[in-house]
Amino acid sequence: MADRSAKPDRESLLGELSALSATATSADSAVSVSVNTDGVLTQLRLTDAVSRMSPDEIADAVLRTYVEAQRDSAKRTSQLLAPLGSGGYLMDRLRWREQFEPAPRPSVPRREERTDTVLQDRSAEAPAVAPPPGPMADDDFYRQGPRMDQAW
To answer: pLDDT of 54-65, one tens digit each?
Structure first.
């Protein structure tokens, strides 16, 4: 029987880390996300259920499922690296990933439920502006003396 406290073989550890993949699926099965050992997104799958969701709901489901997959990846990576020690920057980052919780998004009603008007046509309220005068002759320009107005 192999001694569990012994340090793992470097090549086998690297092989396990590179093969590690964590997948999480949302509670309604609309979103499925896979990440690698670094928590980098490697696959995103959406089912037809997302057609009944608002863009904000889809974004929230993807984010939360992604975080869940990252947590699983961090936990499994920590377990693989545990024989090497539990200190250091890498292990601190893995612990942080395991505990990360995204900030809750404010609830935005669906487009058809909104009653507020975001854009209004106010073109009739704008005062009439006289068109700029034509080009000025050089003599007239220099006769006016120094000015501090905008060049454009």
So the answer is: 998 999 999 999
Q: Is the confidence at residue 148, as pLDDT, over 80?
A: no
Determine the 3-state secondary structure of 5 from DSSP. Answer: coil
List, as one string, the DSSP characters of 6-62.
Answer: SPPPHHHHHHHHHH-EEEEE-TTSSEEEEEETT--EEEEEE-GGGGGS-HHHHHHHH
CB distance 65 to 26 below 8 Å:
yes
pTM of the entire predicted model = 0.61
Contact by Cβ (8 Å): 25, 32: yes
Task: Report residue 22 CA to chain centroid gap.
Answer: 19
Tokens encoding 114: 């909104």
Say how many residues make up the chain: 152
Local structure of residue 128 (DSSP, 8 states): P
Structure tokens, 136: 């000025």
